[in-house]
Amino acid sequence: MTDTSTTAPAGSGRPIAPSHGALRPLGLDEVRITGGFWAGWQRVNATALIEHCAEWVERIGWAGNFDAAVEGRMPEAHTGKAFADSDVYKLMEAMAWEIGRTGDAAMDARFRALTARIARVQEPDGYLNTNFGRPGQRPRYSDLEWGHELYSYGHLLQAAIARVRTTGEDEFVGIARRVADHVCEAFGPDGIQRVDGHPEIELALAEWSRCTGDPRYLDQARLFVERRGHGVLADIEFGRAYFQDDVPVRDARVLRGHAVRALYLTAGAIDVAVEDEDAELLEALRGQVATTIARRTYLTGGMGAHHEGESFGLDHELPPDRAYSETCAGVAAVMVGHRLLLATGEESYADLVERTLYNVVATSPATDGRSFFYTNTLHQREPGAEPPLDVASPRASSSLRAPWFEVSCCPTNVARTFASLGAYLATATDDGVQVHQWASSEIATALADGSRVRLRVQTDYPRSGAIRVTIDESRAEPWSLSLRIPAWATGATVAIAGAPPVAATPGAHVVRRAFAPGDVIEVSLPVAPRWTWPDPRVDAVRGAVAVERGPLVMALESVDLGSSVNDVVVRPDAGLVDHATEADGEVEATIVPLHGGADAWPYADAPVERAGEPARRVRLIPYYRWAERGPSTMRVWLPLASDVSR
Amino acid sequence: MTDTSTTAPAGSGRPIAPSHGALRPLGLDEVRITGGFWAGWQRVNATALIEHCAEWVERIGWAGNFDAAVEGRMPEAHTGKAFADSDVYKLMEAMAWEIGRTGDAAMDARFRALTARIARVQEPDGYLNTNFGRPGQRPRYSDLEWGHELYSYGHLLQAAIARVRTTGEDEFVGIARRVADHVCEAFGPDGIQRVDGHPEIELALAEWSRCTGDPRYLDQARLFVERRGHGVLADIEFGRAYFQDDVPVRDARVLRGHAVRALYLTAGAIDVAVEDEDAELLEALRGQVATTIARRTYLTGGMGAHHEGESFGLDHELPPDRAYSETCAGVAAVMVGHRLLLATGEESYADLVERTLYNVVATSPATDGRSFFYTNTLHQREPGAEPPLDVASPRASSSLRAPWFEVSCCPTNVARTFASLGAYLATATDDGVQVHQWASSEIATALADGSRVRLRVQTDYPRSGAIRVTIDESRAEPWSLSLRIPAWATGATVAIAGAPPVAATPGAHVVRRAFAPGDVIEVSLPVAPRWTWPDPRVDAVRGAVAVERGPLVMALESVDLGSSVNDVVVRPDAGLVDHATEADGEVEATIVPLHGGADAWPYADAPVERAGEPARRVRLIPYYRWAERGPSTMRVWLPLASDVSR
Questions:
Q1: Are the beta carbons of B319 and A319 separated by less than 8 Å?
Q2: Is the pTM of this model over 0.80?
Q3: Residue-wise DSSP of B157-198
């Protein structure tokens, strides 16, 4: 691994800044998204989504918990679940990145006002939680399984990291420092020998260590990672696998249990492995992630196949209609993928990040940024009920987007991801720049010799696969520009400075030359729609196919079909028609609507052939835009017509 | 409907005794199972299963709750969930039927001893619950959503009904009378205008009304049925559909929510509809059950497709690997099917009863009657962990049978069903006898004119489809003997008194003649193994087939395969081989073991063909006997080889 520690100072605007790794992350001051799909989401985030979350944490009382705690109104006045504090912190993390990105002064004032309310709650020894320790409340750390105290600290620390790396030291950062010190004191080698039921503190402490340069926090993160898996938490109805306390992190074969918990833990363990240069641990984690991607991941990149316990299913257990695929698990998978990309330089991790960003993270919010999916099903069998607009939705259902949830981890998680999205676009090495995510953007950084390189990406991706990279500043000597060709992009080409296009195979396509300002590199990715076939071991989608277009998973929605998506088969032999230029990447496929069939015992002594109407073309839309036209049914996996060979 | 009220006196040994209906139930004194499959289970029940349950309710403290309640040791000493009392009552119902069936004096002494302990807990106004109302406990009826007070009464009343119809009036029956009166007082027209979160009181009160002849209890049952569905219970995380408080009973389209709750409610509502001669309500319920059977029932007869909320899935949502198919839902489906059979005389309901008895109820207990499945999956993907033998299993998993559960409704439910199994075999009308379930048995009853008919069934069913019915007593005039030909029994024949066999089509095959003692009717049911194809709307098993043999669903278990059942396809074109005479209905099918396949992104741009080993024959066993040879994988639905046309 390259030693990159000197290139990760505080104030760089980087969500994570490993001191080792194949690639060096660029900060938000080095990468700016300037247009297209993700710029649109950053605009919605800045103008609506963050504001929406800020309104809700007040309206529902989760910010007010901090006031109630100092005003002696607890426990009666506490609102929300045990982890209500954490959503205020996730919101503040989103704000911190956004303030750093745009310099929004009103948002900064709001951040400081929230800080002042939180500061009053912190106890002299650093402890900070609105839900424990006061008269009538349970004692602190008395319910590590479900109390989420360290989990909440983790999000507080992540917000402080965003703050210190954008605005710098302030009152909030001071709160975080006292919290981090308290955790090391209370849970250190001589402290409580247990862990939190919900991982998150691990990655936060590791990053806090990077941020402050103090190895004590990394030591504590390592302790938490190593302690887990030895049954240090109580057994619960879902089993200890629910919070990954069944098998030590370095011994596990695959991710299991609660998906968000498993992925946050993995992210934190990667951070520890990277800082420790612990190759064995990193290999173990890479293996677990590889198996999870191969056997426990939906086509959308979604993870979590059980509503019960919000957990991963077993290998190849991926029911589309019961996909949990929590939005937060998508955010966490992006965090894991980005960390492994930085550690290894393997573009397959950027593929996962791209897939998950488009088909999980961007699927959650409505276009206006004011309602959200909590879960992200791949098959909606019945039109969902309209969720209430004025109260938190009680259930994490997969029907229509809701403005807020009783457990509302997802909206603020989307907000902080959108605000820090630039960090996922590109990285650098001593001798080059790597572009991982395609969006209109400006990338500027210094190479190891101090020379500046600056480049501009212009594209309408993913609607179009035409990408134009212009070198705006370059040193005289050669350097390497690495361009990610996604795994699906068979037939991609790259043309340099007017030369004829050359074939580019999936992975990192590296161009090394002495670039001159004004040089143009044209990347062409074949985003035309394609049929996608599942591994036959995925029982739940046997005999079905999906359609993808570029990085987008497509979906059939009843609004376009005119009838229920449950009663249809598809004819891949009739091809696909691309309508990319007309509207947001739409596609037409040929389907046959079927008649309902008899309502009798559904198991017979011969195959049942269902009567169909004539085949016709129907529109498929990007999955991320479904359920925007009222209650509907939807499916990603389309059953094959029975005469189509498998 | 025929008025059958005069034929349903107390003391008849009948679990239910409707005053109207197409068919008149026979009591346990009129039907005796004498040999074969079900006699075996009755023997296990008498010698082990009931004893096992009796030991566990003591060991785990649920019987002891009654002592603790009068000794002032509550709330600290309470063990088990809110509904722990109910399992003591279900055990007592099993004991009561068993005492009636066999006259077991030791069991009767045990029943009376339990009665004495329970009697001391009853309050002067009839209220009886170990979990509510004492200092430190919550007030009675303060948590109807989850408190299960009326649910527990329901089981107490069912035990009392068993008692009064076998042994007669005693101290336990007196307790029940005071409970029933108290419920009418507390929840009557001037009482609490709500219902219990778990239906059960409805069917119990309706039967108690039949048992006592007092219409007040039926009135109360009707009130409970009519109140539900109007949002009289609080909204909960699972939604009000969980306890069927979302839609009024007579307006619902299909069963939904928690499967056991939905089925108990349906049973109670049928009882009310029958007693009230409320044809509209009965039709509504028949429609709901028909839709449930057509769209929400597993091949095994199992109901409940979600672990989350233990609930029905949506239409055609029947994942084999996530089947909940709770044993208690099987028991409840038998209760519903039997009630509809009695009300309508339609043998399709007896088909459902048979399917569910063999493939759900008899699947739950181990051969020795000392461990149980709570859920009954149709696809076990990974070998389950061995459950603890000395403590209650915390989770309702689908791995191996466990001796007891923290929620242990199933073992006692199996016990009471086995003890009263004779009641499901045959019925009578004014002018004949109907045999619904095939087992070696003796049936004796009186027709409307007072004449006695007596017949004997001899069979090795379901191993063999040869059934011999001998008339042992008959009147001189003709009467009708109805023989159920199961829906799957294409090609069945019936031969009467030495005459050549005649074809018998599925349904009720009625023979009307002047039988003479010694007349023999030979029924031949083609139990040879057959392939079964799913409705193409059941997405989760598309491209797979199952094997059935007579009423038995067959299963492939890894123990027989020598490798995981996840990696195999089947060749229906290679036929099936029956080994009925060798062992318990085993079958051989031809399968192809597949190699695991690549561990990479599981979605590709072309169909993936997996490499297979040579085709070979492998044993399938009856589903009800799986998991008896240690941890294993198992599947009912077998993926088709890709070159087999669907």
A1: yes
A2: yes
A3: HHHHHHHHTTT-S-HHHHHHHHHHHHHHHHHSTTS-----SS
